[in-house]
Write a structure and sequence with these properties.
By secondary structure, this protein is an all-alpha fold. Helix content is 74%, strand content 0%. Helix 1 (2-30) crosses helix 2 (38-45), helix 2 (38-45) crosses helix 3 (49-55) and helix 9 packs antiparallel against helix 10. It is elongated. The mean pLDDT is 92.
Length: 207
Amino acid sequence: MQTAEGGLRERHKAQRRFRILDATRELLRDSPESVISTERIAERAEVAPATVYNLIGPRDKIWEALAAGFMDELERRLAALGAGDPREVVRSTVRLFVGDPVVSRRMVREWEESGLVLDRSPLTQLRQAMADARTQGLLRADIDTDALASVVGTSCVGALHQWVAALIDDDRFLARALFALDVALAAAAADPYRDQLLAPLRTRGAV
């Protein structure tokens, strides 16, 4: 009985947490530059302000929780696609952020640790995709694919911050993220696949 009650409490907490984050997204979309206070979030979510603090935390934790929500959604999308192609991982990541620009831009600007936003996903998927490419012989056997994925992830974070600052548009964001990936793949290409992996760089326009 206690286990069942504990499970019910956890479900109720998860539901309230979902409402709080959904309310935050709604407030941002309604007024992108407004101050997001605990009181406003609580009112929209129909919970007490203390509940916001207890289930999420202070303001920086709210941005962190929103970032985690983006990554949860990315993982669902990639799982649905069965995506093992590193290019699809990068494309899906960019589409996720540009698909909800108000929330993603504000989250990246406000979250102090936004440089970590891609550390869980897509970095995990990129590591696996590049390891698979090495196993398939596309990349050299001596390549550290974890390090290679980390370099691409860092470049994608840089492109994300440029997009958030409106220095580049959606198309340029995607182009720069894919360019970083293509450079990494070409540099690590096994000899039989070198021309194939260099082809995107030879035909690419300005990024």
